[in-house]
Design a protein that fits this description.
30% of the residues lie in helices and 18% in strands. It has 277 residues and is α+β, with helices and mostly antiparallel strands. It has 2 domains: 4-110; 118-226, Hypothetical Protein Tm841, Chain: A,domain 3, CATH 3.30.1180. The radius of gyration is 21 Å and the shape is globular.
Length: 277
């Protein structure tokens, strides 16, 4: 992780602790390089998880570090999710890291598990929201005093103005919900949305520092539903067919290696058959 606020507390004693690369873009390059090299040597492979709201200066430094180490054992994983959901996904990978999964399979599991997250927020304004489509009518209403909007960013974008009939499409399977409160004094997420989605458990966490940048406002309550049970996560990952990366040879799931970024080669075109006459 690139921020301590993205390292959520462990669910159980099996969940591995997160390694936080602090101030990646402001500390001396050789200092951060030495730290990352020590992490790679200690664990063999490293998956650096960061959100789309991570500053570009941090991303450039991470790519520089990976190039200097000349290592295919470092994967940069930046899922298209709001910051709280990224933190939840990172914790799920930490849970799975205690199982008998190879590093390529574990890193690839991140893309698979995004399909089981529902992430959104209650916002006091959508005037600066550029991650979700906002029509002109909704944009105009965001300037009205007291307006609030319920927004679902993943898996399908959805935006409704808060009112008695406001609803968001939730998961069709049992989940827990994590809530992070910003500067918006509202209990709608915990008292209305959570019961409507029939969540099986509810927990709260501090709001990630990058959330305000992602949602375009600090007046928000961010939420994410997820699967907390390690056995369920393990079953999902191990039920997917795996294969070996044709470039680096590591076992992966999916069509792209997250360590060397190689994709399967295009199948060779078969020669056209001609009929003899």
């Amino acid at each position: 992780m690139t921020g301590a606020d993205m390292a959520l507390p462990a669910h159980d004693e099996r969940t591995l602790p997160a390694v936080v690369l602090r101030d990646v873009d402001t500390r001396p390059l050789d200092q951060v390089l030495t730290e990352l090299q020590a992490v790679v040597e200690a664990h063999g492979h490293v998956v650096v998880v960061c959100s789309p709201a991570t500053p570009q200066s941090v991303l450039r430094r991470l790519h520089t570090l990976r190039s200097l180490l000349e290592s295919d054992r470092i994967a940069l994983f930046r899922p298209d999710l709001p910051p709280l959901a990224v933190a939840v996904l990172a914790r799920q990978l930490r849970q799975l890291a205690s199982c008998d999964l190879g590093p390529g399979v574990l890193a690839s599991a991140g893309r698979l598990l995004t399909h089981y997250l529902h992430a959104g927020a209650l916002l006091g304004s959508v005037a600066r929201l550029d991650r979700i489509p906002v029509d002109l009518r909704q944009h105009a209403k965001s300037w009205l005093p007291g307006s609030q909007f319920a927004v679902l960013a993943h898996p399908q974008p959805q935006l409704v103005r808060l009112g008695p009939d406001a609803r968001l499409d939730g998961p069709e399977f049992g989940t827990w919900m994590l809530v992070a409160r910003g500067q918006l004094p509202s209990d709608w997420v915990t008292t209305t949305l959570a019961p409507a989605w029939r969540v099986q458990g509810l927990r709260e966490a501090p709001l990630p520092a990058e959330s305000g940048r992602w949602w375009g406002t600090g007046k928000l309550v961010e939420f994410c539903t997820y699967l907390p049970d390690l056995s369920v996560l393990y079953q999902l990952v191990t039920s997917v067919r795996r294969g070996a990366c044709h470039w680096c040879g590591i076992d992966v799931i999916g069509d792209r290696c997250v360590f060397c970024s190689a994709t399967p080669p295009a199948p060779e075109a078969r020669p056209a058959l001609t009929r003899r006459t």
